[in-house]
C-alpha cells in the first residue's frame, strides 16, 4: 500500500524537469530526496573549496601568460570553403579582405582528412589526431550486432531506471548523453594549462564538454524531436509521405474562414510510441498574411518571408518541453505552409547546448531566440520543394546573422586566450546551389533570380565581409587564422555501391528479392561478404565481429584487396569516366586504438561522383550509376587531395603544406603549452 | 559526475605504457575505452538509431 502511494504521489507532486532526451527515452526526474541531499552537500563542498580552486587557477593563468608568445588568437572557421574557388575569387578581386590577408600573411591549401567529411575533419581539427585516435570516421557509425546505423558523434540513451504503471513510463534516473569523439580537444588542453577559450559552434561538439572557457554546441545538436531536423509541411491539398526526407506532412481543413490543426512535436516521454501535439489556428489576414495562434501566443506571418522564431511549448502532464520554430508561407490559396524543424529553446534548453549550461540562456536573453539545431539550414525542405530557394537562403542567412552576433560579442568581450567561431553557411549554400555554377549538372536550375543563381559567389563575399569586420576589431598583437574543414566539388552521378557489390557477388539478397529496403532490409547476411555503409565506407562481414559474419580474418586480407582493385579500375561506361580516384584500406590511413571501428575500405571518389542516395541509406537495387537530379548538387566525399580547404593567417607561417591536424600543435606553441604526446599534427611555425 | 577508482601502481604504469603505445590521450580514456569494449561485447546491440538520423542532409 505504502509502495503504491509513493508511485501515485509521483503523479501528484510537481516535480522539476531534469532533461528531455528525445525519441524512445523521455524525461528524467529528481525522483529521490537522496539526490537532492547529495546535490546540496556537493554545492556546500564546491563553495567551501572555491577560494582554493580560484587560487590554483590564478597561479596557472599567471604561468600561462608568462609562457605565451601571444595574448589573443582568433580562429574563424568557414565550413567547406574551397581553396580553388577562394583563390579564383581573390584573383577576380571579389574577396578584398581575404586578399589582404593572403598578401600580408599566409594563404595556403589546407589538407583535410580521408574521407573529407565534416565530422571526421572537424574532429581532427579539434584534437590534432587522425580518425583512428578520435573515433569519427563518417557521419554514421554502425552497430556490428545489428548492421544498423547510428550517429557517429553522439549517443543519447534513455534513463536506465523507469517505473512502469500501466501504459505509463516514469523515468526516475538521468538519461545519458555522450560525446563519442575521443582523444582531447585543444581547448581542454589549453584550459588545463590556464589558457581561456571561447568555442562557438565548432561542429560535432554536442554535448558540450567541461573545460576552462565557454562553448556553444554546433553541428550534430538535435532538434526537439531528437532528430537531425524534421520539417513539417501544412497543406489542404497534399497529404503525402515524403519518400526520402522523412519530413512530416499535415493536412489542414478550413472551417469558418480559418484553419485549425495540430503541430506534431516530440515523443510523449510517459507513453511509448505516442507523440505530443500542439493545437494551433491559422487565420488568414489578407491574401498575403496570416496569423498563427496557439495557447503560447500569436504571430503574423507574411507570404515569402521567413517568420521570426515562435515559441512552441509541448505539455505532457505536469511537464513542459520548450521549442522554437520558424514559418514560411508559400500561399494561402491553396494553403501551402512550411514550418522549420522545432529547435530546442535556448532559453529553456531541454538538452545541454552549452558549457556552462547558463551560457546558451545568456545568449538567448541578450540576443533573442536563435537556431540551436546543428544543421539549422533545412536542405531537405528545399529538396522536397516545401521550402523555396528564396526561403532557404533567408533561413541560411538568418541563422548565420545570429552566429555573427555571438562572434562579434565574443571578440569585444574576449580577453587573453583563444576564440574559435565556425560559420557553416558556406557549406550549406554550396551543397544546394552548385548546380547554378556547373553547366553539366543534371539538377534543376529553375530560378532566374540573381540572388539564387549567384548564391555561391554571394556567400563567399559575405564570408569576406565577416573577415573584414573581424579584422577591424583586432588588436595589433592579435593573431587570426581562418580555416575550412574541406573544399567542394560537383556531385552529378551517384554510385550505387551496394548494388555493385551485389552484382559482383559480395552482397546477397534473400531468395526471391531483387532489391532491399532501407538499412539492408532483405539482405541475406549468411551469404554476404561486404556491404557499403555511410558516405564512403565498405565493411566486410567479418566472422566474430559482425553478428552474422562469414568472412574469416585470413580471407579478409585477400578480399579487401580484391574489392579495392576492382573499384579502382571501375568505369562509368555511360559517361566514359572513372568514378573512383582511390580506395584506401583502413590500416593504410588510420592508426590508433579506434581504427578497428573504421570501415575496412574507404572509397575516395573522383569529383563529380558520390555514393548514391539509395546506397547511403543501406538500399540495394537499381542501376549502378544514376544521375543526381536533386538540388543537393555538390559534395565532398572525394579524396582529400582533390578538394583542399583554406588556411589564412595574418602572419607568415613556415609550413608549406599545412593540414587540419596541425592546428592544435600550432595553437599550443603560440601559448607556450607543451604539445601532448598523442597529438600527431605539426606546429606550422607562425612567425609572431 | 566523474568517479575515482583505485588501481595498483603496477597496473597504472602498464596503463601509462599502453596510453603512449596505442595513442590514447590519457589513462582515463584508456580505462573508459576498455570498459566500453567489455560492456558492448556483453550487450545485445543497440539496434541503431534510424529515427535520430532524420534530417541529416547527406543521407536523408
Features:
heterodimer, A: 688 residues, alpha+beta, Alkaline Phosphatase, subunit A, eight-stranded mixed β-sheet, five-stranded antiparallel β-sheet, 18 helices, 36 strands, 25% strand, disordered N terminus, B: 60 residues, mainly alpha, 0% strand
Structure overview:
The complex is a heterodimer of chains A (688) and B (60). In chain A, helix 11 (425-433) packs antiparallel against helix 13. Chain A has 18 helices and 36 strands. Among the domains of chain A are: 68-136 and 181-221 and 374-486 and 649-688, Alkaline Phosphatase, subunit A (3-Layer(aba) Sandwich), CATH 3.40.720; 492-635, no CATH class. Chain A is α+β, with helices and mostly antiparallel strands. In chain A, a hairpin with a 2-residue loop joins strand 20 (310-316) and strand 21 (319-325). Chain A is globular and about 70 Å long. In chain A, the strands form ten sheets. In chain A, strands 4-36-27-3-26-11-12-25 form an eight-stranded mixed β-sheet, with helices on both faces. In chain A, strands 15-16-17-18-19 form a five-stranded antiparallel β-sheet, with no helix packed on it. The longest helix of chain A is centred in the first third of the chain and has 35 residues, at 33-67. Chain B has helices spanning 9-22, 27-42, 50-53. Chain B is mostly helical and 60 residues long. Chain B is elongated. Chain B has three helices and no strands. Chain B is 57% helix and 0% strand. Classes of the chains: A alpha+beta (688), B mainly alpha (60). Chains A and B meet through strand 5 and strand 6 of A and helix 1, helix 2 and helix 3 of B.
Amino acid at each position: 500500500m505504502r509502495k503504491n502511494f509513493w508511485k501515485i504521489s509521483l503523479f501528484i507532486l510537481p516535480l522539476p524537469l531534469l532533461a528531455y532526451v528525445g525519441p524512445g527515452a523521455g524525461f528524467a526526474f529528481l525522483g529521490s530526496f537522496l539526490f537532492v541531499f547529495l546535490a546540496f552537500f556537493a554545492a556546500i563542498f564546491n563553495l567551501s573549496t572555491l577560494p582554493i580552486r580560484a587560487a590554483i587557477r590564478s597561479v596557472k593563468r599567471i604561468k600561462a601568460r608568462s609562457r605565451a608568445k601571444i595574448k589573443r588568437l582568433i580562429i574563424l572557421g568557414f565550413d567547406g570553403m574551397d581553396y580553388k574557388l577562394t583563390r579564383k575569387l581573390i584573383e577576380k578581386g571579389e574577396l578584398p579582405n581575404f586578399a589582404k590577408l593572403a598578401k600580408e600573411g599566409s594563404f595556403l591549401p589546407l589538407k583535410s582528412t580521408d574521407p573529407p567529411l565534416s565530422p571526421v575533419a572537424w574532429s581532427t581539427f579539434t584534437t590534432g589526431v587522425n580518425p583512428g585516435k578520435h573515433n569519427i570516421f563518417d557521419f554514421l557509425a554502425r552497430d556490428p550486432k545489428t548492421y544498423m546505423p547510428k550517429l557517429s558523434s553522439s549517443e543519447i540513451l534513455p534513463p536506465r531506471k523507469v517505473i512502469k504503471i500501466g501504459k505509463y513510463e516514469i523515468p526516475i534516473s538521468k538519461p545519458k548523453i555522450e560525446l563519442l569523439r575521443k582523444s582531447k580537444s585543444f581547448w581542454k588542453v589549453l584550459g588545463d594549462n590556464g589558457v581561456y577559450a571561447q568555442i562557438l559552434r565548432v561542429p560535432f561538439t554536442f554535448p558540450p564538454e567541461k573545460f576552462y572557457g565557454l562553448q556553444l554546441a554546433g553541428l550534430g545538436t538535435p532538434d526537439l524531436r531528437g532528430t537531425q531536423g524534421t520539417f513539417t509541411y501544412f497543406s489542404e491539398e497534399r497529404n503525402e509521405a515524403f519518400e526520402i526526407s522523412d519530413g512530416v506532412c499535415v493536412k489542414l481543413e478550413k472551417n469558418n474562414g480559418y484553419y485549425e490543426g495540430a503541430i506534431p512535436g516530440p515523443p510523449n516521454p510517459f507513453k511509448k510510441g505516442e507523440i505530443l501535439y500542439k493545437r494551433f489556428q491559422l487565420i488568414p489576414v489578407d491574401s498575403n498574411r496570416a496569423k498563427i495562434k496557439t495557447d503560447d501566443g500569436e504571430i503574423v506571418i507574411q507570404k515569402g518571408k521567413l517568420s521570426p522564431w515562435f515559441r512552441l511549448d509541448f505539455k505532457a502532464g505536469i511537464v513542459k518541453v520548450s521549442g522554437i520554430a520558424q514559418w514560411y508561407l508559400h500561399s494561402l490559396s491553396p494553403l501551402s505552409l512550411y514550418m522549420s524543424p522545432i529547435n530546442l529553446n535556448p532559453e529553456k534548453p531541454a538538452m545541454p547546448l552549452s558549457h556552462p549550461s547558463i551560457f546558451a540562456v545568456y545568449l538567448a536573453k541578450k540576443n533573442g531566440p536563435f537556431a540551436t539545431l546543428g544543421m539549422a539550414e533545412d536542405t531537405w525542405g528545399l529538396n522536397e520543394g516545401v521550402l523555396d530557394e528564396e526561403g532557404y537562403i533567408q533561413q541560411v542567412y538568418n541563422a548565420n546573422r545570429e552566429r555573427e552576433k555571438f562572434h562579434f560579442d565574443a571578440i569585444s568581450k574576449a580577453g587573453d586566450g583563444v576564440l574559435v567561431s565556425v560559420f557553416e553557411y558556406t557549406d550549406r549554400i554550396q551543397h544546394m546551389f552548385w548546380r547554378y555554377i556547373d553547366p553539366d549538372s543534371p539538377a534543376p536550375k529553375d530560378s532566374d533570380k540573381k540572388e539564387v543563381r549567384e548564391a555561391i559567389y554571394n556567400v563567399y563575399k559575405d564570408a569576406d565581409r565577416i573577415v573584414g569586420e573581424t579584422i577591424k576589431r583586432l588588436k595589433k598583437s592579435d593573431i587570426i587564422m581562418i580555416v575550412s574543414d574541406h573544399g567542394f566539388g560537383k556531385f552529378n552521378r551517384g554510385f550505387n555501391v551496394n548494388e555493385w557489390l551485389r552484382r559482383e557477388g559480395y552482397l546477397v539478397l534473400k531468395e526471391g528479392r531483387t532489391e532491399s529496403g532501407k538499412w539492408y532490409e532483405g539482405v541475406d547476411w549468411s551469404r554476404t561478404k561486404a556491404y557499403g555503409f555511410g558516405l564512403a565506407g565498405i565493411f566486410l562481414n567479418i566472422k566474430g565481429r559482425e553478428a552474422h559474419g562469414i568472412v574469416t580474418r585470413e580471407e579478409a586480407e585477400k578480399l579487401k584487396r580484391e574489392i579495392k582493385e576492382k573499384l579502382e579500375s571501375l568505369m562509368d561506361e555511360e559517361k566514359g569516366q572513372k568514378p573512383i580516384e582511390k580506395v584506401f584500406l583502413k590500416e593504410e590511413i588510420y592508426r590508433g586504438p579506434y581504427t578497428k571501428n573504421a570501415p575496412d575500405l574507404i572509397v575516395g571518389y573522383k569529383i563529380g561522383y558520390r555514393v548514391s542516395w539509395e546506397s547511403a541509406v543501406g538500399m540495394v537495387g537499381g542501376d549502378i550509376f544514376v544521375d543526381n537530379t536533386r538540388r543537393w548538387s555538390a559534395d565532398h566525399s572525394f579524396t582529400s587531395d582533390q578538394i583542399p580547404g583554406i588556411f589564412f593567417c595574418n602572419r607568415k607561417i613556415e609550413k608549406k603544406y599545412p593540414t587540419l591536424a596541425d592546428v592544435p600543435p600550432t595553437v599550443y606553441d603560440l601559448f607556450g603549452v607543451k604539445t601532448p604526446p598523442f597529438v600527431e599534427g605539426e606546429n606550422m611555425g607562425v612567425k609572431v | 559526475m566523474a568517479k575515482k577508482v583505485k588501481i595498483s601502481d603496477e597496473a597504472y604504469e602498464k596503463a601509462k605504457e599502453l596510453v603512449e603505445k596505442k595513442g590514447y590521450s590519457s589513462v582515463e580514456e584508456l580505462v573508459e575505452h576498455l570498459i566500453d569494449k567489455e560492456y558492448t561485447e556483453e550487450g545485445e546491440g543497440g539496434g541503431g538509431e534510424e529515427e535520430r538520423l532524420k534530417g541529416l542532409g547527406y543521407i536523408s
